[in-house]
Design goal:
The complex is a heterodimer.
Chain A lengths: L12 H31 L12 H7 L2 H34 L5 H8 L8 H11 L17 H25 L3 H9 L4 H30 L2 H6 L6 H11 L3 H32 L13 H28 L2 E3 L3 E4 L2 H9 L3 H31 L6 H10 L6 H12 L13 H11 L1 H13 L5 H7 L4 H30 L15 H10 L3 H32 L1 H9 L1
Antiparallel strand pairs in A: 1-2
Chain B lengths: L6 E12 L2 E12 L3 E5 L6 H9 L6 E6 L2 E2 L11 E3 L11 H10 L5 H14 L15 H13 L5 E5 L7 H18 L2 E6 L2 H7 L2 E6 L2 E6 L1 H6 L4 H6 L4 E8 L3 E4 L2 E3 L13 E6 L4 E5 L8 E10 L3 E8 L7 E6 H6 L7 E6 L5 E4 L12
Parallel strand pairs in B: 3-8, 3-9, 6-7, 7-8
Antiparallel strand pairs in B: 1-2, 1-4, 4-5, 9-10, 11-12, 11-14, 12-13, 14-20, 15-19, 16-17, 16-19, 17-18
Helix pairs in contact in B: 2-3, 2-4, 3-4
Classes of the chains: A mainly alpha, B alpha+beta.
Chain lengths: 565, 372
Amino acid sequence: MFGAADVRQRVHWTDRVGHLALLLLGILLGLLLLAPIWMILAKSVEDRQGDFVGLRYFIEYFQTPALMQSIWNSVWVSGLVMLITVPAAFAFAYALTRSCMPLKALMRNIALIPLLAPSLLSSISFIFWFGNQGLLKSWLGGAQIYGAPGIVLSLCYATFPHALMILITALSLTDARLYEAADSMGTSTLRKFFTITLPAAKYGLISASMVVFTYAISDFGVPKVIGGNFNVLATDIFKLVIGQQDFSKGAVVAIMLLVPVAVTYVVDHLVQRKQQAQLTAHSVPYVARPSRGFDIAMTAFVWLVSLLMLAVLGMAIYASFIKLWPYDFSLVLGHYRYGLIDSGVFVSYLNSVKMAFWCATAGTVVVFCTAYLLEKTRGMDWLRPIVRLFAVLPLGVPGLVLGLGFILFFVQASNPLHFLYHTMAILVISTVVHYYSSSHLTAVTALKQLDAEFEAVSASLKVPFFKTFISVTVPVCLPAILEISRYLFINAMTTISAAVFLYSPNTTLAAITILNLDEAGDIGPAAAMATLIVVTSSAACLVYYLLNRLLDRTTQAWRRPLEQN
Amino acid sequence: MNSPRAEALRIEHLRKQFGSFTALEDINLAVHKGELICFLGPSGCGKTTLLRIIAGLETQTAGAIIQNGRDISRLPPMGRDYGIVFQSYALFPNLTTFNNVAYGLVNRKSPKDVIAARVAELLALVGLSDSGDKYPNQLSGGQQQRIALARALATSPGLLLLDEPLSALDARVRVRLRGEIRTLQRRLGVTTILVTHDQEEALSIADRVVVMNQGTIEQVGTPDEIYLDPASPFVADFVGKTNLLPATVIDGAGLRIGSLTLAGVSLPPGTPSGAAVSAFTRPEDVIVRAAGETLANSAAGRIESIEFLGAHCRLAIRVEGIEGSPVYADFSMRGLQSHGLAAGKAVRVAVLSERVRVFAAQGAPAATGGGA
């Protein structure tokens, strides 16, 4: 006998409210994700008049050696970045989790600094270090920083914290009892590393590799600033769409970019599913024991990496105060005053803050409400897996591709949503969609930690779910909500990829202005703008940290004993 | 508490499928007004699923649920009348004890002083009057359990559902609290369904016990009916400790178990002489004497081991003619000494024939030894 359908329960009006909200949010998310991608697929087989031309543009693409070269360039550069960043981040994470080195928290925070700036900050910095007028140009011999070397260096810097966070988590998962068992059998350090540490971190390593590769291949700002004549997929899309207004060929290249990212996304997804099975609540955390030689070696490595990190950030900040590089090294505020304010580009900074604010507020509300409705309400079971898929899909779509899809979708005058075209709203929407997956997963993790029966208890007491949502769920999940908000704010401040197609003269953003300043040769003001973004992101982090502290203090009575468990 | 009693809840031909797995099969049950009924069974028997269907948290595949004459089969949880306490208690961590208990009352828009009075009354009822401004995490497990109970009772529901409410507590608190739940339930007269896998808990507080196994009801009865007169081998085996002895029917009303012959045993109707059956007897109904003493109608055996259980101890005895597992007998420590019993000693063993329950043989090998 197979799966007879259950009796259909009547739906209470309060539950209907939940169903309707979930349906609306699901449609919205699906529309904003699928419509743009569909537009790209459609555009790639249409000519300028909108007539169907089949695979003509694909064939043309594969017959253009210069474009084909870009595919190879993108792949090998991203692969190289992956091969450098992941082992380095692994060693760094290993030092943080397995050694007794001093100042771990400080070193960790230094390593996370790249998250606070657009990826191209590092490119600007490397130009000041090694560019044509760079301080250390002589170190390169006759070689050039512009092109592949600069791209690889910049992306290593930008991707390092992403890999580091994954690997710290992976290394913290190992059960200390495995090492105790190995010790009791007299196992050598090297053997323990290869038989316990590496296997346990295996999924973390794969996941970090995929993330770094995806980041590197989709990044646009770095190759634009420091790439010189070295073409990659991301810059090709930009040149075709913005430079030549050739949307069809741009769409073809976007699909070329979508394919490797989608592949790594699927690999990562499969791997993460396996890792979750490995996680048990009863593991005993590993506590490092002092070991002189090892600790000194680890400290030296971590300090070296941190120093390099600071050198990159420091140069961008330093250069923003230099009067006339490389002739007059006096420290002045000229680039800020004349380069940004008087030249009228400062408004883009205000736009960025405005956009980040809306992402951090409206975006957070949408993300958290959707996650709540998805995880904690009943009924409409056919809809839930679909919305769940929509929520994790954006991770597999490069920002450039999403941005191109958005412009193709919203530019059509026949689209009822056309009124959003060239507004601040479309920037906010595209950014929230672009960074949806991580935010969603943070919300889901927090919600899953709540007792599963809160909603059942409310129903038995005849209290509608939305009252319990407001009076219990939101207060209890506030730390996670703040974390989502912070994440969206920082990313909105630093994003370029999706926004580069969507801004209008009235809604330029700070990170994009850096591109434009750099293009115009105003590298000093570009550094100043990058510094402003870093300062703003850092200030935002500080504000969120203080909010969290305040929250912790005011809710101490009910939260503290909980954490002791 | 008089016997034709009004019906609070009736379940008719209820069935629940999860895919191809049948979680509940043709459940029929009537719950009387004011009684405390326990759903008892091993994990996976469907008892919690049945409770959740009554609460509307799961939906049945077929069948009806009638509460006070009203068909509630298709009502959502919000439309049903019950209070519920979960195993995890599901207390709202950010609300004080007072606000937890008041949660359902506030929604009814009662005046503030009425709510305060009602909450005070409930807190007094569960003995936590001075804990109103504490948060759940500042309370012990037992206190949290009582707050959950007070919250469930606040809106005076017609039915109280308790899903393993005591299983998260340690043994001593569990015993004390189950007594308190029983007293409270009697005082308020609220119809209560309690789900448990703990037979001692069920037997000690229930008016009636529903023993469930593999999605079906095996027996419904008072605790002593369940214990003394189990309706099936499963109930006999699941509730209390039992000796399962292969036996053969002799002379229409007697049994031969190994070299033991029992007369005056109540047999299932229509069991022919010579039929192989299973005889169940409780350890306390097995009589043991030292080999030298006289014991009517007994068989020879030897004490294999003695398990010390605190107030009493349990003897494992290898009895002549009974293959397989040993026969268990309970003894007080004092009885053990006065009869001079110890491990390894030869003994005589007899069984109280009026307390033996006989079921058709189930998988057990037919009785060995001489037939009738």
